[in-house]
Amino acid sequence: MPRVASYNIRKSVGRDYRRDPARVLKVLAAIDPDIVALQEVDRRFGRRASSIPRALLAEKTDLEIVDLAQRPESIGWHGNAILLRRGTEVQDIHTLTLQGLEPRGAVVVDLENLRVVGVHLALLRRARQSQVAQIASFLARLPHKPTLIMGDFNEWSRQGRNLSALDAQFNLHTPGHSFPSVKPMVGLDKIALSDELTLADAGVYSCPAARDASDHMPIWADIT
Questions:
Q1: What is the residue extent of each domain of the chain?
Q2: Domain 3-223 listed as CATH 3.40.50.150
Q3: pTM, rounded to two decimals
Q4: Is the Cβ–Cβ distance between 118 and 38 less than 8 Å?
Q5: Residue numbers of the chain with a pLDDT score lower than 70
């Protein structure tokens, strides 16, 4: 039963406005996931350098970076990164540029028996609707495989009505309130599963370290 996690790390800048990737990695190590989707992992401007040094990730966790980046100092695509437990085989990789006023992207990683999609959707409602439709359309064109989508959906509606393009292919889950970390009020971080996958357990990883490391708290799920 793999454990997955999603975490918007705000470029490793915590609530105290200090950039401290070690705090983020301490939280991830405590969750002990097999698969991780990170959002806002790379800095937004300039060289788009990763906020998490590769050497520090290798030292502090049992996770490896999927090679998605197209810049030498980045580890993600539009800030989205996928980490896998060390030794996991990757069969295929896709990167998507999502249209809208804000520059956004999604990443797709095929494992042996699972497709993993990492997303960080737009703040604007109409752009978010369009981006979800773009993702659903792209996935429908790929050879079928059990699929997991996770990330920061930026969806404030409890009914997820702006994410309806996923309804035909996926079951959407909100593990709990994950934002803002100082006093969580809304579940922006979500997981969507294709029909072959079952959510056995899920939650928000809430602890002092997680509340301090970013403005989001991470979500996790055990899936079968």
A1: 3-223
A2: no
A3: 0.95
A4: yes
A5: 45-46
